Each structure stands twice: as C-alpha cells, then as structure tokens.
TrEMBL record:
Residues 61-71, 79-95 have a biased composition (Polar residues). GO terms for cellular component: nucleus. It comes from the Eukaryota. Keywords: Metal-binding, Nucleus, Zinc, Zinc-finger. InterPro entries: DUF659, RNaseH-like_sf, ZnF_BED_domain_contain. Transmembrane segments: none annotated. Pfam families: DUF659. Residues 1-108 are annotated as: Disordered. Residues 233-378 form the DUF659 domain. It is found in: Nucleus. This is DUF659 domain-containing protein.
Length: 541
C-alpha cells in the first residue's frame, strides 16, 4: 500500500475538518498536539509520543542516524527518500478550540511545543523546527525554552491580534490543574474544634468571667484574627455542655490524684454572695490542697450534727476510691468544737484538731488595745470614706487606707502599718482642710476630732509598740498558712511565741487555754518525731 505524508500548517477550522475526514483514511495519519489534550489518530496505530520535562538525551534529534540539521530543502529531500518506509508525521502544534477527543493520560504537555513544528518517524524525532526563526532545536522542552529566550523573532509579549485562542478545557471537562477556592481554605477538624472549646472553657471558668464573653464584639474579632475558621460557641454552650464536661474532667483528674492515698480533711463554712450559708470540704495530700466540693445548708441550721452528717457523706465518697481520711481540721467556733467531739467519739482513727492560725488570730485580737485600735480605725475610715480626703491622699501619692476585717487574719496589723505610713500625709491634708471656710458644723467637728488623733505623737508611739509586741504572732500566722505547714511546725511556732511575748501575756489564762487547744498529744508527738526539731524545746523545758 502506498505510503504518504502531509504537512499540516492550517488554522483551527481546517484542522477540525481534516480530523473528521481522516477517520476513513488508512494511508495517512495526523497527530494533533496541544497544551492539555493529546489526540490519538486511530485505535490500531501506535500512540504519538510527546516528550516531557524529564526526557533524557536519548530522545534528542541527534539519535536518529538519518538526521542532519540543514535547510528546508534538505528536510524535503530526506522525506522524499524515505517515502516508502514508515509513515512520516509532520505535526504543527496548535492550540485546540472546541471539544476534542478523549484525553490521554499523563501530565499536561508543556506549552513550549506550540512554538515548534515537529517531524517524527515512529517514535523518533526527525525534525523540530522553530516556527519563528526556522532553526532546528533538540526536541527537549528545556532546550526549546532556552531557544525561545534567545530567539529574536519570537515576540515574548505579543500584541493581541484578534481574539486569542482559548487554552482552557472545554465546558464540562475539568483540568487536572484546576485550582479550587477550597484549596486556600483551612478546614478545621472536629477534634481540633473540641480542643479549642475545652481550652476556652478553662480560661473562662478559671478567670471567673461571665459566659456571654464569647458574644462580645471585640473578643469575637480578636478570635477571628487568630483563626478565621474557628466559630465561637454560644454562651448557653459555655454554661452548659462545656461546663459539664469540664466538671467531669476535673473530677476524674481529682480521683486519679487521690486514689489509694491518705488525706486530711478540712471543713469550713462561709456565705455566698447571696448570703447563703455553705459547708465546704478540702483534702490535703502530699503538700497539695484539693477542693472536694461545697454544699448549701438551705433551711437546715448549722449545728454540729448537721456538719457531722456532711463529714460522713464526704468520708464515704472517698472510700469508693480507696482514699483513707486520717485527720480532720476545723476552725474553733463552738459549733466546730462540738463537731470535733463527735468525730473523736464515732471515728477514733481520725485525728481531730483546730486551726492554729485561727487560734493565733484570736490571741492577737484579744490582747489588742481596743481604745487605741478604735482611734486608728476612725482616722482610716475618714480618709477612706470622704471623697475629698481620699482624692487629696491619692494626689499626694499616699497608700490606700486598710481596715481590719474579722475574717481576714493579720488585717489589724495591716491597718496599723497603713496608719503609720500615711500619718505625715494625713496631717498635711487635715491641716489644709481645717483652713477651708466652706464647712458645716458637723464637718468641722469631725475634722477637729481626726486632727487631734493624728497630731497625738503618743498615740503614734503606742501603735508602733503594739506592732512590735505581737510581731511574732504575725510571723507565725503567715508561716502556718503555707501549703506544706504541718503539726510539728505548728508546735514550734507556739513555743516561739511563748518565749518572745512578755510574761504577763505568756502566763495569762487566755493564752494558755488557746495554746493547750493547739498543742494536742498528736501535735507534740509530731514535733518530737520531726527530723529537724526532735522535741528539743520540750527537753529544754
């Protein structure tokens, strides 16, 4: 059968017509290449080979023994001599327009092939000519790109001549290189969102923030800048689902730390912000404190029997995790003293003792000069409650006045120290105030009374002596409030106070009574067995 070849250098419409007519032809073959789709001439013929970026030197034009770079006439002569051999294909690489045939597999063809006319015989390249300067170039995309960079006739920024030939894939077909907007979006996994919600909840609960902080406009903007894909939970979720989960996690962690341990319970009562009485329990284990829970008394009176029922309830809960309660510490009010007697009677294996910092605070209050303290408090309230006096004190860079509180230990000492530090500024302010004519009679009387106290130097000296007198009590209270304080430390502090305060206080019945309440048999034993103290003070006595 006669062999023939065709030179394809036509526009896109002529190529489509040629493709339609070439399906019935068996003596010729046309291969059409473009940047995305590669067409096969027929099912029974060899597939057209197109080199890609990784083609090695074996695919160069010089591999063909019949190839000699030359002019166009030499190429025509070579083609005529080999006319009776295998089919020779002369391919003009032109962008395809409209729908095409089935796309071949593999990576998309480099668009540099669109600027060259390729002649092949089978799988070998005979000629690869630049469309612009007609120069022969090795059929490798890298060398073809280098040639175009140097080609003077190739317009690297061509001016638009009519409508450009579309190179995008036809409608209904998706290119392998199609870029979707979802490729630039961060998709948060549910597990990541759960961790963020958990961390957010811990922050809100630990800082005691309102749950609706998650709906604050500026907080939402702040979180959006950190991670735009994170959607904050609603305040109902923060106060419901997340809070319940955090409680369960905390309870589980607490159980792991207290399991198979020996602990000392601390029971205390206080009032909520709504003035509702509650009884709370804490566990002390290995130098750490763990809050176990609080229960509102409701309509039940705070009696020793009621407090003991709560103690038994907590005792049974700890037994479920094999946690043994070896001690109970309470404050020293009458109700708690009655509770201690009930525990000693019904739970002989539990060591019971009162809170020594509380006892020391009672000692300090008992021996404080009430008349002297009342005068100090009067001055402190004057500069704390009157706006003009408070403003003058602030402008003179004085410290805010401190008032004693019955539930805050060492607050009496803090009140006296604040008075001594601000005394000079108090005197300047009250003198300037007394020179003001715009005062009522009651204001003048109050100013004169405060001025008399501040200007009394003997009162100033008495306050200093009172602070020095009970400085050992103040130090002992601060020392026994440490997390790692124990019974041996408590004994040592009581003995030190007895030696440092004047004898008239050390031998007083009130001091002896409170010291006896603290120095129980178990406390003395702990002091004697302590590796540092070893009961040395008792042996000296």
């Amino acid at each position: 059968m006669a062999q023939s070849y065709r030179l394809v250098s036509m526009d896109s419409q002529e190529i489509r017509d040629m493709l339609d007519n070439s399906e019935n032809e068996t003596d010729s073959k046309l291969t059409y290449m473009e940047s995305i789709d590669l067409f096969r001439p027929s099912e029974h013929e060899n597939e057209q080979m197109v080199p890609d970026e990784d083609e090695d030197e074996s695919s160069s034009l010089s591999q063909d023994p019949n190839y000699q770079p030359g002019s166009d006439s030499e190429v025509e002569a070579s083609l005529s001599e080999n006319r009776n051999q295998d089919n020779v294909e002369i391919v003009t690489n032109t962008p395809k327009s409209g729908t095409g045939r089935k796309r071949s597999r593999g990576r998309p063809q480099n668009q540099v092939w669109l600027e060259f006319i390729t002649v092949t015989r089978g799988k070998n390249f005979i000629s690869n000519k630049c469309k612009h300067c007609k120069e022969q170039v090795s059929a490798q995309s890298s060398r073809m790109e280098n040639h175009l960079k140097k080609c003077r006739k190739f317009n690297k920024t061509p001016v638009s001549q009519g409508l450009p030939t579309p190179i995008s894939p036809p409608v209904g077909k998706e290119s392998a290189a199609t870029t979707k907007i979802t490729n630039f979006m961060y998709k948060m996994l549910p597990r990541t969102k759960d961790k963020l919600n958990e961390s957010l909840g811990k922050f809100i609960y630990s800082a005691n923030l309102p749950f609706n902080v998650v709906e604050n406009e500026y907080f939402c903007k702040f979180v959006g800048l950190l991670n735009p894909s994170y959607v904050l939970p609603k305040h109902e979720t923060v106060g419901g689902f997340l809070l319940d989960n955090e409680f369960k996690r905390t309870e589980l962690e607490l159980t792991k730390q207290l399991e198979n341990q020996k602990v000392v319970l601390a029971q205390d009562g206080w009032s909520t912000t709504q003035q509702e009485p509650v009884i709370a329990h804490s566990a002390i284990c290995n130098g750490q404190s763990f809050f176990l829970g609080a229960e509102a008394t409701g309509g039940s009176p705070k009696t020793a029997e009621f407090c003991y029922s709560l103690f038994e309830k907590q005792l049974k809960q700890l037994e479920t995790i094999n946690c043994e309660v070896v001690g109970l510490v309470t404050d020293n009010c009458n109700t708690m003293l009655a509770l201690q007697n009930l525990v000693k009677k019904n739970n002989p294996n539990v060591i019971v003792y009162g809170c020594s910092p509380h006892l020391l605070n009672l000692v300090g209050q008992h021996y404080t000069n009430k008349e002297l303290m009342d005068k100090v408090i009067q001055v402190q309230k004057y500069f704390r409650n009157h706006y003009y006096a408070r403003a003058d004190l602030k402008s003179s860079k004085g410290k805010r006045p401190v008032l004693p509180m019955p539930v805050r230990w060492n607050s009496q000492t803090d009140c006296c120290l604040s008075y001594l530090e601000n005394n000079g500024k108090y005197l300047e302010i009250i003198r300037a105030r007394r020179n003001t004519s715009e005062r009522t009679k009651s204001e003048r009387d109050e100013d004169d009374s405060v001025y008399a106290i501040i200007s009394d130097t003997s009162l100033y000296d008495s306050v200093e002596q009172m602070i020095k007198l009970f400085s050992s009590v103040v130090k002992a209270i601060d020392s026994l409030q440490r997390e790692d304080a124990n019974l041996a430390d408590m004994c040592q502090q009581w003995i030190t106070i007895r030696e440092e305060i004047p004898l008239k206080y050390a031998n007083d019945n009130y001091f002896q009574e409170k010291m006896k309440m603290a120095m129980t048999d178990i406390a003395i034993t702990a002091h004697m067995l302590h590796p540092h103290f070893k009961g040395n003070i008792f042996f000296k006595s």
